């Protein structure tokens, strides 16, 4: 019983003072906030990735019991949100979980390098083991069956799995070249995507009782399709694909003809991330990330529902994540906080807190993140995020510029423990979305091709110069910090611009670009695809990569450098940092080197991440005091 009470407390979290509800006018005034510690900022969420059951009575979510990740089941019919852990088999970790009807959970359990599925009946407390491997492509909402794409990964078939017995039958045989299968809302496999000569072709059938036929192959100028879904009872569907303007938009899609149709919705500035359909497969909304993920509701009923949620949680960004007849699951966040999970009751119109997932930050002062826009030296308009230290004003501040990894990725305004650590220690933090960042159209992304250490680095420097001209920062008190590509950019800045930066910090950064490309090559499925990636990094094939590789230019480093890396990194190998450390030792160049044994490309153990941030704080205090 004591353990269950601990779990309930963890799952509920604590109501952040900034989250006092309109329905709770008696909420006590907030105490004077204190600064969060590094451990507070990196503490794993006590409730994460929640999923609402189809009948809206329960929430399944990732949780923590005495520091051990587990699955939590929350009964939201009760005011105290009664919570219990879902026991998992010994020696297995949770890889995924999905509702199948109102009482079944399909659990993906990993042991060694293999994932198997288990069906847990939460009412009976019984399990059914699924002995078939594969990727889930459909789960029946009534909980009768699911579809797995499995077998040879180069040419998988489709298996229908009975969730009451675990038995499986192959319902679609492997087809030459088809790696991805698509099912409609009824669980009927309707299409398979094949590739030939670098262009997509489609296998299609109108119904379960028909044979697949190969549709015409796409032409070379057909936009690349990112996501698609067939609508039951018709040959039509929806697809996310590139547009003539270079942005990714939402289109009608003709599966029978393998052809994009009319544009349904395109955002004016950013790419779409996906779309949402209702239980019948009808299109209801388009998903995009401007500063935070949001939905453009195309369905009038959902637009009205969003207005009701926003009225219940005013002054906040509210994202409806799941919907049932009695209630909705909503992620809600306001400036200066890490956000929380809320339940919205359709009948009463009230929103109640399910969990403040980062309960360690309750009562702690966080910094506000705001979007910014600036112009690069060549006239290109860029964006990013500026976080100012609380209570320090907006003039003459010390700065840490933090370029993101990828580099073909992007930053958002979402909670970032590193940013908050720096800001609450007195530093302004700039996160520039330099050219090559994704999400702003294909043309903007391709501007980054061949620009490692060149125009991408110019953009980072130009963001710093813009803040200096505005008087926001003191240009003599600037450092740079990043991970992965951001770590590379930090190390390269130490060589390229020692007059602009006082110090540099790299986690899992690339120091030898040619060696990294050689490491990447075996991960590509063809020489052609690898050469395409190489062109994106190198640009002109004759361009000397050593000229922009920190390892090869180590003798030019003249500013303090902190280098850190996980020894088990499978994305950027540990020796990318180790070799630079040894080169600097040989040169007699003072620096700090901090390896984390067993860590990966990102730091997974909270104690290690807290240690890293603490070292970063001490390093900055010595070389760029706030």
From TrEMBL:
This is S9 family peptidase. The keyword Ion transport does not apply. Keywords: Hydrolase, Signal. The keyword Signal applies. Residues 416-623 form the Peptidase S9 prolyl oligopeptidase catalytic domain. Its EC number is 3.4.-.-. It comes from the Bacteria.
